[in-house]
Structure formats: structure tokens, C-alpha cells
Design a protein that fits this description.
The chain is mainly α. The chain has eleven helices and no strands. The chain is about 75% helix and about 0% strand.
């Protein structure tokens, strides 16, 4: 079995289908697909819960206005119990009502906006709020991995999989996607 087929089987096993993003990666550069899968597996051992990771990734995807990743991570977050209103809030640049998730979204946006240059005072404030360096480093890792995929989707104009319709049919998603002009 060649490398592409081995990765295709790993993706099928992980997601239950082969998402369009992976079809693109496997067709053009399987090493990138492999890197994404390995990074995701490593980060599953991190300090953030799976839902918290989805919220961070959705925040990054919305920040980068990625049509594909907002749909994918929004759908995953909905399946994990995030409310549709919270997904809409993130897509619209607002904060979810849940205080902890709002803090995660706000912190992710702060790291993105400041490109990681957080002051000592900001770091201390985050620590007091329960977001120490372990969580921040994981947020930064998720930003890095997600930004790579966002940019690939921008270049590839990756078609959004039908399974992500719970998000693509939302007004907040359509507004975000329509706000981007190339």
C-alpha cells in the first residue's frame, strides 16, 4: 500500500469519511496531510478539552475567514454540545455567553491580534482566570496548525462537505463567507 492510500485509510478511520480538504492534500502533498494528522494526535494529549480545542479552532477559522474550517469546526463543536448561538457568536466576532468559553475565544483573538506578544500583565491576568502557559501554548499550537489549513483552503477553494451543512446553512456563516473578497 502506498503512502497516499495509507493516509486515506487513516483519515477515513478518524473522520468516518474522507473530507474534501484531505482529498486536496492527498492529491497534491500527502506530507501536509500527515503533518496535520500527527499534530492533531499530539494535541489530543494537551490540557484543553476536545470542545475547548474545537472552540479555539473555530475562533481561528473565523478570524481567518476560512469557509471550510468554520464549517468543519462549527459542526464538530455543535456535535460536542456547543450551542448554535455560541457558534454564531464566534463567527460574528462576538463572545459566547459561557464565561469560560468566552475567555478562550477572547484569549485566542488576543494572541492572534498581538501575534503572541502578550504583556506580563496580560499573562498574569490570564493565569488568574485559569489560563496558564500550558493552555496558552496549546492555543498557539492550534493557531499554527489551523492557520496552515485555513490558508490551504483559501488557495484551493476547497468545496465544503455536505456533512458540514449544520453550519453552512446558518446566517452567521453565510455573512462571514460573503464578507471575503479575493
Amino acid at each position: 500500500m502506498d503512502r497516499r492510500e495509507s493516509l486515506r485509510q487513516a483519515v477515513q478511520q478518524k473522520f468516518g469519511f474522507v473530507p474534501q480538504l484531505f482529498e486536496e492534500l492527498l492529491r497534491t502533498n500527502p506530507a501536509v496531510a500527515d503533518a496535520y494528522l500527527q499534530a492533531g494526535a499530539a494535541l489530543q494529549q494537551g490540557v484543553l478539552t476536545p470542545l475547548e480545542q474545537q472552540v479555539v479552532q473555530l475562533t481561528v477559522a473565523a478570524w481567518n475567514a476560512c469557509h471550510y474550517c468554520t464549517a468543519a469546526h462549527g459542526t464538530a463543536a455543535l456535535r460536542m454540545g456547543l450551542s448554535p448561538e455560541a457558534v454564531d457568536a464566534i463567527l460574528e466576532g462576538r463572545l459566547p455567553e459561557d464565561e469560560h468559553l468566552a475567555r478562550l475565544v477572547e484569549t485566542t483573538r488576543q494572541v492572534l491580534e498581538r501575534r503572541g506578544w502578550l504583556s506580563d500583565e496580560a499573562l498574569q491576568a490570564l493565569e488568574v482566570q485559569g489560563l496558564g502557559r500550558a493552555a496558552l501554548y496549546e492555543i498557539i499550537a492550534l493557531i499554527g496548525v489551523k492557520t496552515i489549513m485555513n490558508y490551504i483552503n483559501h488557495l484551493a477553494h476547497t468545496p465544503v462537505d455536505e456533512v458540514f451543512r449544520p453550519v453552512t446553512e446558518r446566517t452567521a456563516y453565510r455573512r462571514l463567507v460573503e464578507s471575503v473578497t479575493v
